[in-house]
Amino acid sequence: MRAGALGFVAGLAALLAAPATAQLSDAEEVMVESVESGFERDVALLEQITLINSGSHNHAGVKAVADVLAPQFAALGFEVEWIDQSANGRAGHLFARHEGAPGTTKMLLIGHLDTVFEPDSPFTGFVRDGDSATGPGVVDDKGGIVVILAALRAMKEAGTLEGANILVALTGDEEDAGEPLEAARRDLVEAGKWADVALGYEGLSQLDGKDAGVIARRSSGSWTLTTSARSGHSSGIFSEHAGYGAIYEMARILDAFRRELPEENLTYNVGFMAGGTPAELGEDGLSATTGGKTNIIPSHAVARGDLRALTPVQNEATTERMRAIVARHLPGTEATIAIEFRYPPMAPTAGNAVLLDRLNAINADLGREAMQPYPPSRRGAADISFVAPHVDGLAGMGPAGSGSHAEGETIDLRSIVRQAQRSAILMSRLAQDASAK
């Protein structure tokens, strides 16, 4: 846990020691009712923004979603800012700031405007069936944005928003971040340095059908492996003068990864590969071409894959081990590997765990079951990971659903209610604490 959060976490721990018989305050009862009564309004907003295509590369669509949301935040007393990202190849980010009582908890709420579904996707529309709805991005992450607004409206009605210091950061390129990455995430990282607490509003995780808490998410990186060798007649394969060829060297390395790297919370998928004479990686980095003959020793091979780890230390250690494996060349071959981490991990911290305990105290007051920590190996990377080195947080604060990133993505609409209720009460209680920064 970072040193700057020690006082803040100690304060949270003290509050957790309160009597187990604690109940909702009058203001919290108002928030619970406010979220419930606003359910149909929130579903209508979800439908409105779902019907606007906002694929990461549809800049006009991303901005159109922001234009719908900006007045919603402004009506709650937030100062709204559009941060143009055209220089980084993306539309932009919508930030909304609310200044509350000086010296109290600074809260960063993170969501995103874009989806994986570009304008040419056949998956369109918004189809409601009772308490579920299907549409592109209904869970990831337009439903998360609706949860944020529902919680803030409830706080406003209960009178707890006035004293709260909150920054809402809705990025426009979470599904495909702009370049250079440092510039595309600069504003978010600065917000993380400002905040005491970060709450990520991507989808709610569930274990055996029960809501779970997310205190850790793994990194997301990629690797590119290339091998080369002397080519020649296949009758000479394995000989001292001809060597083993590029494909055997590739197979050696990938099999060594499989055998030597396994450890908890680490995965390293091979996405695609090609080998022959020659074999070349496509300009898009997502394809490869090759040719050759059965009687020719292959001269080149290429492969790409991803790498996901739980902590920066695990990232670094795995990278070193992969490079060491690559360096053990078969006779007559060469190999190189390039590794890039796009999204850092949200490592589990004591502060994150305390925040989940704080949320579970609210669950108890609401008469709900405690939320168990969700296995980080089952969650992908998200924007909250960029601020994780600077601030403790909780992810998975958005709605429940299924099929994210695929046709048929579906949201459990009633999960908007329970997540917004939890959020409103959590933020209201945090707003009464002293800031650690």
From TrEMBL:
**Keyword annotations:** Hydrolase, Metal-binding, Signal
Q: SUPFAM superfamilies of this UniProt entry?
A: Bacterial exopeptidase dimerisation domain, Zn-dependent exopeptidases
Q: Peptidase M20 dimerisation domain spans which residues?
A: 215-332
Q: Which domain of life is it from?
A: Bacteria
Q: Which InterPro entries match?
A: Bact_exopeptidase_dim_dom, Peptidase_M20, Peptidase_M20_dimer, Peptidase_M20A
As one GO molecular function, the record gives: hydrolase activity
| Pfam families assigned to the protein according to its UniProt record, in alphabetical order | M20_dimer, Peptidase_M20
Instruction: Please list which residues make up the signal peptide.
Output: 1-22
What protein name does the entry list?
Answer: Peptidase M20
Q: Which organism is it from?
A: Qipengyuania flava
